[in-house]
């Protein structure tokens, strides 16, 4: 009778006393990377660009914001739109001055002001229309292919 209790007690003791060693890999990661997160849309609201530096591998803290940069967007007609830093690492456009236009090409320009000044420039990207959701498209196809013929038959029968 005591053997099952002893086995359970011994198992619990082994589990509690076992060690876990944290594995921290040694990498040659580049800490001088600039992470750019943003979206340009044609909606009449502020567009947001976030700039951060990556954390070391294994850290779970928030990325380090990159502050004090000059951020702007130019379009294919030569107009330039300046983004203003609102919180560290977050840059927003003035919605009264800048709203994306579908079919236009936009280029993002960033100049960092930390230590040695670095210039970054994106490729020119075309602002494309957003496709309707597949659920909406499926409903539309359903009503066009299934419901409309039935409605036509009802109208014809009622005549």
Please explain how this structure is put together.
This protein is of the alpha+beta class. The chain has one domain (35-153): Immunoglobulin-like (Sandwich), CATH 2.60.40.3780. The protein has helices at residues 2-17, 134-158; strands at residues 35-39, 48-53, 64-65, 70-75, 80-87, 90-92, 105-112, 118-121, 125-126. Strands 1, 2, 3, 4, 5, 6, 7, 8 and 9 form a nine-stranded antiparallel beta sheet that branches. The longest helix has 25 residues, at 134-158. The radius of gyration is 29 Å and the shape is elongated. 9% of the residues are buried.
In short:
By secondary structure, the protein is α+β, with helices and mostly antiparallel strands. The protein has one domain: Immunoglobulin-like (Sandwich), CATH 2.60.40. It has two helices and nine strands, in the order αβββββββββα.
Domain count: 1
**Major sheet description:** 9 strands, antiparallel
Give the CA-CA distance, first to last residue: 89 Å
CATH class: Mainly Beta
Please give the oligomerization state of what you see: single chain
The name CATH uses for the topology is Immunoglobulin-like
CATH architecture annotation name: Sandwich
Order of helices and strands: HEEEEEEEEEH
State the helix count: 2
Mean of pLDDT:
77
Low-confidence stretches: 144-159
Please give the share of residues in helix: 25-40%
Shape: elongated
Global Rg: 29 Å
Q: Give the tally of β-strands.
A: 9
Structural classification: alpha+beta
Strand content: 25-35%
């Amino acid at each position: 009778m005591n053997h099952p209790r002893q086995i359970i007690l011994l198992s619990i003791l082994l589990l509690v006393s076992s060690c876990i060693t944290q594995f921290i890999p040694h990498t040659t990661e580049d800490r001088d990377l600039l992470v750019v997160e943003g979206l340009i849309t044609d909606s009449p609201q502020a567009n947001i660009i976030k700039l951060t530096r990556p954390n070391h591998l294994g850290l779970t803290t928030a990325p380090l914001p990159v502050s004090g940069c000059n951020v702007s967007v130019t379009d294919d007609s030569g107009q330039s739109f300046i983004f203003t830093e609102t919180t560290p690492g977050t840059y927003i456009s003035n919605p009264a001055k800048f709203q994306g236009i579908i079919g236009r090409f936009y280029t993002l320009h960033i100049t960092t002001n930390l230590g040695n000044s670095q210039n970054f420039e994106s490729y020119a990207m075309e602002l494309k229309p957003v496709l309707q959701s597949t659920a909406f498209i499926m409903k539309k196809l359903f009503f066009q292919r299934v419901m409309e013929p039935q409605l036509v038959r009802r109208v014809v029968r009622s005549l």
